[in-house]
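Backbones bend. Our protein:
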Amino acid sequence: MTREEQRLFVEDLTRTILAGLLTRADKWPEKWDGHELRCLVALAADVHTRISAIKQDPRGERARAFRNDILTHPTMF
């Protein structure tokens, strides 16, 4: 993937997650604040990562390479 394709993929994925969450916003308990909402966003993102080869084979070569990239480049996120 080119850098531009990466950016477009991330934009599309986050827009999809955001749209899905916001369509259900009226069902969120009013008592929820940032703690619950952060966990809700993380859960929604997790649902969208289930098809990832890294999630499906967390001990595989690709997953190990991903974790190594994260550990050696912590400023990526």
User: Anything to note?
Assistant: DSSP finds four helices and no strands in the chain. The chain has a mean pLDDT of 96.
